[in-house]
UniProtKB/TrEMBL annotation, chain A:
<dbReference type="InterPro" id="IPR002585">
    <property type="entry name" value="Cyt-d_ubiquinol_oxidase_su_1"/>
</dbReference>
<feature type="transmembrane region" description="Helical">
    <location>
        <begin position="353"/>
        <end position="376"/>
    </location>
</feature>
<keyword id="KW-0408">Iron</keyword>
<keyword id="KW-0249">Electron transport</keyword>
<feature type="transmembrane region" description="Helical">
    <location>
        <begin position="129"/>
        <end position="153"/>
    </location>
</feature>
<keyword id="KW-0349">Heme</keyword>
<comment type="similarity">
    <text>Belongs to the cytochrome ubiquinol oxidase subunit 1 family.</text>
</comment>
<keyword id="KW-1133">Transmembrane helix</keyword>
<feature type="transmembrane region" description="Helical">
    <location>
        <begin position="184"/>
        <end position="207"/>
    </location>
</feature>
From TrEMBL, chain B:
<dbReference type="Pfam" id="PF02322">
    <property type="entry name" value="Cyt_bd_oxida_II"/>
</dbReference>
<dbReference type="GO" id="GO:0016491">
    <property type="term" value="F:oxidoreductase activity"/>
</dbReference>
<feature type="transmembrane region" description="Helical">
    <location>
        <begin position="80"/>
        <end position="105"/>
    </location>
</feature>
<dbReference type="InterPro" id="IPR003317">
    <property type="entry name" value="Cyt-d_oxidase_su2"/>
</dbReference>
<keyword id="KW-1003">Cell membrane</keyword>
<feature type="transmembrane region" description="Helical">
    <location>
        <begin position="162"/>
        <end position="182"/>
    </location>
</feature>
<keyword id="KW-0472">Membrane</keyword>
<keyword id="KW-1133">Transmembrane helix</keyword>
<feature type="transmembrane region" description="Helical">
    <location>
        <begin position="260"/>
        <end position="279"/>
    </location>
</feature>
Length: 444, 341
C-alpha cells in the first residue's frame, strides 16, 4: 500500500503513536500538580475561584486521560508488535520499570476515579485534596519509570552479551543508567512546564477574547508563575543533559550541533542550513558548545569524525534541537517579563498582542516537547539499543505494517478532533460565569 | 513452586481478573446500546452508567498488566506473539481506543449522544472476539516457522471451526457474566424493573454459554489432541465449574440471593479458566514455546515478583477503597449522591 519497507513503516508508526501519545502523556503528568496547587490555594485563601479552577481543570483532564490511556495501551503493545526482537531482549533486562509503571498507573487510575466522584462529599475540603496526592504521585512515577526504559535504550547497561547470550543481568543497574537522571528530570520538569503554559494559554485566550473576569486573571498569573519556575528548571537540567551526552553519547550531541571535527574551544551553532559538510547562515556562539558539554570554555568536544558513517544519526536533529531550545528560552523570557510586569504593573502586559503571545505559549511548549522527543529518538539512530542492537534488526517481519499505519493514523485523527470538539463543547455549554453564579451567587 | 509457575500463575490470575471485569464492562455497553435501540434505555442506562463511570479506567489496566507482565516474565513471547499478532492485536487496540475515548467523551462531555452509546455497545462485542483470537492461535497449527521467523497463516485461522467457536463463546460469555452481575447490581440499587430485565437476559444467555463451552472442548479434540487429553485428565475442575453454573442459574431462576449467584459465577469461570490454563501447561504456544524455554533470567524474575508483591500491597487497599466508595456504597449505588467534578 505504501512505499518503503517494513522497518521504515514500523518506525513511522511508532513515531506517530509516540508523537500523539506524548501530548496526552505530558498533560497527564503535569496537570494533576496544577489542579493540586489550585485547590490548595483555594482552600488556603478560601477563594471560590481557585476551587472552581481546580474543578474545571479536573473535568477537562479526564478527557485527556482517557485518550492518554488508550494511546498508552497502543504504544505499550506496539513495542512488542513492531519491535519483537528488541522487546525480547528488553524484557530480559528492563522489564522491571515497565512493570512498575503499570502499578503506578493503576494507582493513579483508582484515585482519579475516586477524586472525580467525591467532590463535595467531604466536609473538610482538604480530605478531598488528599485524594489527589496519589494521582499526582502515580502520574509522576509513570513518567519516571517509562523514561527509565528510554534511558536504558540510550545508555544500555546491567547485562553482558556473550556469544549472543544474555548473562549477568542486573535489573537495577539497567534502571539506573547514566542517562537516567537527566532524562527523567527533563521529562518531568517539561511536563510541569508545558501543563502550566497550556493552562495559561486558556486563561490568556479568554482575556484576549474580551473577558475581564478575575477568575481568568488569577489562573493566568498562577500558571505563568509555575511555568516560569519549571522552564528555568528545564534549562538547568538541559545543561546537565548536554554534559551527559558529551560523556556517553557524543555522536548525538555532535549531530545536534553539526560538530564535525573534534576540537577544543568549540562554538555552539544555532540555526543555519547544511550544505554537504559546510554550515551556512548559522549563528555562532563562541565557546558555548565546550561549556555545554564540559562546563569549560576550552574543553575538547568530540566530533562526528570519531564515528563510522553508519553509526551517526541524521543531521536533521540539529533543527529539532534548535526548535526545542528556542522555544524553551522564549518561554523563560516571556514568563519572566509577564511576572515582573505584573509585579511592577507594566501596562503592556495586559494588551492584546502580549496576551496573544501568552496564549501561544501552550501550543509552542507542545511543539518543543515533540521536537525534543524526535531529537532524542532520531539522535539515537541507527540504534534502538545504543551500540548493541540496530533498529533495523529489531523490527517485525510481518508484512502488514503499512496497513496498520494507515489505520492508526485514521484513529489518531479522529481522537484528536474528538478531544478538541468535546473539550470545547464541555466548557462552552458551562461557562465560568454561570458556574460561579450557581455556586455562590457572586456577580460576574 | 518454581519461578516459572509462579510467574504464569500471577499473570493468569490477572488475565482472569480482566476477563471478569472486562466482560461486565463489554456486556454493560452492549445492553446499554441495545436498550437505546429498543426504547428501554430509561430502565437500564442509569444503572449501567453509575457502575461504569468510576471503574472504566481500572478495567483497562488489568489488560495492560497482563501484556507487560508476560513480556517481563516470558520475554520470548514478545518475539513469537509480537510478530504474529500484529494485525489482530492492532485491531483490538483500535477498538479499545474508540471505546475508551468515546466512553469518556460521552460521560464527561456530551451526554446522551446515541452514536457514542451504539459505538460503545458494538465494540463491546467485537473486542472479546478479536482478543480471544490470541487463545486460538496459542493452540498451535496456525503459526509456522519460516527462516527462523514465526508466520501466521490467516487462511487456516479464519477457516478453522475452533476459531469461530472460541469467538462465539467469548461473546456469549460476555453477555452472560455481565447480565448476572448487573442483575445483582440493579437489585442492590432496589431498581426492580432493571433487575427483572437483567435477570431475563441472564437466563437467556446461561444455556448457550455452557453449550458453546462444551463445543470448544469437542473442537479441540480434533485440533490439538494433546491439549484435549489434558483437559479430560482435569475433568473434575470442569465438573465443579458446571456445578457452580447450575447453582448460579438456580439462584437467579428462584430470584434468590443475586450476590451469591454472581459469586458462584466467578467460581464457575475461575475453575474453567484455570482448568484451561493448567491443561495448556507447559505450552505458551503449541508446539513452539513453553513457559520454561521462554522464561526470563532469575534476577529479573525475582525482582518482578518482589515488585509485584509490593505493588499489590499498595493496590489492594486502594481497590478496596474504590469498591467501598462506589460498588458497595448504598447511597452511591442508588444514585442519591451527586459528587461529580
Amino acid at each position: 500500500m505504501l512505499d518503503g519497507d517494513t522497518v521504515f513503516n514500523s518506525r513511522l508508526l511508532t513515531e506517530l503513536t509516540l508523537s500523539f501519545h506524548i501530548i496526552y502523556a505530558t498533560i497527564g503528568v503535569g496537570v494533576p500538580l496544577m489542579i493540586m496547587i489550585a485547590q490548595w490555594v483555594g482552600i488556603k485563601k478560601n477563594d471560590e475561584h481557585y476551587i472552581l479552577l481546580a474543578r474545571r481543570w479536573a473535568r477537562g483532564f479526564v478527557i485527556t486521560v482517557a485518550v492518554g490511556v488508550v494511546t498508552g495501551t497502543a504504544i505499550g503493545l506496539q513495542l512488542s508488535l513492531l519491535w519483537p526482537k528488541f522487546m525480547e531482549l528488553a524484557g530480559n533486562v528492563i522489564a522491571l520499570p515497565l512493570f512498575m509503571e503499570v502499578f503506578a498507573f493503576f494507582f493513579e487510575a483508582i484515585f482519579l476515579g475516586i477524586y472525580l466522584y467525591t467532590w463535595d462529599r467531604f466536609e473538610d475540603q482538604r480530605k478531598h485534596l488528599a485524594l489527589l496526592i496519589p494521582v499526582a504521585i502515580g502520574a509522576g512515577l509513570s513518567a519516571v519509570f517509562i523514561t527509565m526504559v528510554n534511558s536504558f535504550m540510550n545508555a544500555p547497561q546491567g547485562f553482558d552479551l556473550v556469544n549472543g547470550e544474555l548473562i549477568n543481568v542486573n535489573p537495577f543497574l539497567a534502571m539506573f543508567t547514566p542517562a537516567m537522571p537527566t532524562k527523567v528530570s527533563h521529562v518531568v520538569a517539561t511536563a510541569f512546564m508545558t501543563a502550566a503554559f497550556l493552562l495559561a494559554s486558556i486563561a490568556a485566550f479568554k482575556l484576549v477574547r474580551g473577558s475581564n473576569h478575575a477568575y481568568h486573571k488569577k489562573a493566568l498569573f498562577m500558571t505563568m508563575k509555575i511555568g516560569l519556575i519549571f522552564s528555568i528548571a528545564t534549562a538547568l537540567i538541559g545543561d546537565f543533559s548536554g554534559k551527559y551526552l558529551a560523556e556517553y553519547q557524543p555522536e548525538k550531541l555532535a549531530a545536534a550541533e553539526w560538530h564535525f571535527d573534534t576540537s577544543e574551544q568549540a562554538p555552539l551553532l544555532m540555526y543555519g542550513i547544511l550544505d554537504g559538510e559546510e554550515v551556512k547562515y548559522a549563528l555562532e556562539i563562541p565557546f558555548a558548545l565546550s561549556i555545554l558539554a564540559h562546563g569549560d570554555p576550552s574543553a575538547e568536544v568530540i566530533g562526528l569524525d570519531q564515528f563510522p558513517e553508519d553509526e551517526t544519526p541524521p543531521m536533521a536533529v540539529h533543527y529539532l534541537f534548535d526548535i526545542m531550545v528556542t522555544i524553551g528560552v522564549w518561554m523563560i523570557l516571556l514568563s519572566l517579563v509577564y511576572w515582573v510586569g505584573t509585579k511592577r504593573k507594566w501596562a503592556f502586559i495586559n494588551t492584546k498582542p502580549f496576551l496573544w503571545l501568552l496564549a501561544l505559549g501552550g501550543p509552542l511548549s507542545i511543539i518543543a516537547i515533540e521536537a525534543g522527543w524526535w531529537m532524542a529518538e532520531l539522535g539515537r539512530q541507527p540504534w534502538i539499543l545504543r551500540g548493541i542492537m540496530r533498529t533495523s534488526e529489531a523490527a517485525t517481519s510481518s508484512s502488514h505494517v503499512d496497513t496498520m499505519l494507515l489505520l492508526f493514523a485514521g484513529i489518531y485523527l479522529i481522537l484528536g478532533i474528538g478531544t478538541v470538539v468535546v473539550l470545547r463543547r464541555m466548557f462552552k455549554k458551562n461557562p465560568v460565569e454561570k458556574e460561579l453564579m450557581e455556586k455562590g451567587g457572586e456577580e460576574t | 513452586m518454581s519461578l516459572e509457575i509462579l510467574g504464569i500463575m500471577v499473570l493468569w490470575t490477572f488475565l482472569f481478573g480482566y476477563v471478569i471485569v472486562a466482560s461486565i464492562d463489554f456486556g454493560a455497553g452492549f445492553f446499554n446500546a441495545y436498550s437505546e435501540l429498543t426504547g428501554k434505555q430509561h430502565i437500564l442506562t442509569k444503572i449501567i452508567q453509575r457502575y461504569l463511570s468510576p471503574v472504566w479506567e481500572v478495567t483497562n489496566v488489568f489488560l495492560v498488566f497482563f501484556f507487560v507482565g508476560i513480556v517481563g516474565f516470558f520475554p520470548k513471547t514478545a518475539f513469537y506473539y509480537g510478530t504474529t499478532l500484529l494485525v489482530p492485536v492492532s485491531i483490538a487496540i483500535l477498538l479499545l481506543a474508540v471505546r475508551g475515548s468515546y466512553y469518556a467523551f460521552e460521560t464527561y462531555g456530551t451526554k446522551g449522544h446515541k452514536g457514542y452509546a451504539l459505538m460503545y455497545g458494538l465494540t463491546g462485542l467485537v473486542l472479546p472476539a478479536s482478543l480471544s483470537i490470541v487463545l486460538t492461535i496459542s493452540e498451535g497449527g496456525f503459526v509456522s516457522m519460516t527462516e527462523g521467523k514465526p508466520v501466521l497463516d490467516y487462511w487456516a485461522l479464519f477457516t478453522s471451526p475452533l476459531t469461530w467457536s472460541i469467538v462465539v463463546l467469548s461473546i456469549i460469555a460476555v453477555l452472560y457474566i455481565s447480565s448476572v452481575f448487573l442483575t445483582w447490581y440493579a437489585s442492590k440499587a432496589k431498581d426492580t424493573k432493571a433487575t427483572d430485565l437483567m435477570r431475563k437476559y441472564a437466563l437467556i444467555w446461561a444455556l448457550p454459554t455452557i453449550i458453546t463451552a462444551c463445543g470448544i472442548i469437542y473442537e479441540l479434540s480434533f485440533h490439538n489432541q494433546e491439549h484435549f487429553d489434558r483437559i479430560i485428565d482435569l475433568w473434575w475442575m470442569f465438573g465443579l465449574s458446571f456445578l457452580l453454573f447450575i447453582g448460579t442459574v438456580w439462584l437467579i431462576w428462584k430470584r434468590k440471593n443475586y450476590g451469591l449467584a454472581f459469586g458462584l459465577l466467578v467460581g464457575q469461570f475461575a475453575f474453567a479458566f484455570f482448568g484451561y490454563g493448567l491443561s495448556h501447561y507447559p505450552y505458551l504456544l503449541y508446539p513452539h514455546l513453553t513457559i520454561y524455554d521462554s522464561f526470563t533470567n532469575e534476577a529479573m524474575a525475582i525482582s518482578l515478583v518482589v515488585a509485584f508483591v509490593l505493588g499489590l500491597a499498595l493496590l489492594l487497599p486502594s481497590l478496596y477503597l474504590l469498591m467501598r466508595l462506589f460498588l458497595f456504597n448504598k447511597d452511591y449505588v442508588k444514585g442519591s449522591q451527586k459528587n461529580k467534578a
